[in-house]
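are you around this afternoon, could really use another pair of eyes. what follows is a protein written twice so to speak, once as letters and once as structure tokens for the fold. i want to understand how the tokens follow from the sequence so walk me through it. anything you notice is useful, everything is just below.
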Amino acid sequence: MSSALALLPADNSVGPVPPATPNRPDWTDEAVLAGTKAIADGPLSAAAAEIDRGAYPLEILGRLGGAGALAVHLDRHGGRFGLSVAAMQAASRACGATGFLMWCHDVCGLYLEQSGNSALTGAVLDDHAAGRSFGGTALSNPMKAFAGIEPILLRARRVPGGYRVSGMLPWVSHIGPGQYCGAIAGVVGANDTISHEIMFVLACDRAELRPCPHFSGMEGTSTWGVRLDDLFVGHDDLIADPARPFIGRIRGAFILLQCGMGLGVAEGSLDAMLAVEETLGHVNQFLDDRPDAVAAELAELRARVMRLAETPYDGATDYLIDVLDARAQVSELALRASQSALLHQGARGYLMSATPQRRIREAHFVAIVTPAIKHLRWEMARLSRETLPTVTEGSRA
């Protein structure tokens, strides 16, 4: 089955063009980053442990929205993907769960804006970008379905004026009563085969939300099972019909934005190492992944992500492979840095209340959230095979 990550070449000749001046001139790069860091270092740091245990930080997300941290990647606010990644990194340095919620919110805003649907790109998008309303993404299953990893779980049937959608998604984050998310359903055609897919905005008040089992961490992400029973999806709800070309166009941006979350978790782990360097450095010098090495790798990887963020809609296969690889490298660095932070702190880091314990759970999440490390490697291997020249009989290797 074809993969959504490389279904169709991106069509960069259509769609919105970033304005020369953002709609909010007060949201300068410096102001957004300073505002985000103030929130991260203050109320977010104070609430991080509680968020890990289940507190859903909507009030803090609203403050981040007011600072511009949830909007600057959008075309109407300058298309500043690098700044968006930096803001997410700053928040994730304090709390990985909040960084993940920022990513959910950011990509939902991306869906709304790139849809071109006037019902979704006016006041609805303005409220979303400013953190006055909240929405997430239900694309974990579709992304894996398009890659041939699992079947698509939502099914749609065409009816007059739109579609009727039914099915169950096991977990969707950053949703709740009064909120919404972007979702994808396979359209069932003749002989019960899927003819294509549609992408739409799902209002949570029109769905049944079911509690999920308890996870080992990241409990404050408001993650629910979602059940739809003959839900009507009309034109005003549609993000894309068909969905695959749309996903093909935003795929790089979708994955690249996640790097901010992993970079922040790695940086927070580095902070935990440095916190004990004065007292334990004499013995910690014998550990692998020392602070100076992690800091150097983090800086190099961040610079690489920032370069990729300059062209988030690049449709070239080589570019997408670079994005996938950077995302995988971010996951691997977060895993190594979080484990090293615990080893550097020793017994104090093994306390259930210790920051390194939370960081390890956050890093594991970075590594398994869609696209997980194994999914990323799957896609890189497939794309690399497709771009390798065919060696014909008698030719020289």
Q: What stands out?
A: The longest strand covers residues 162-172.
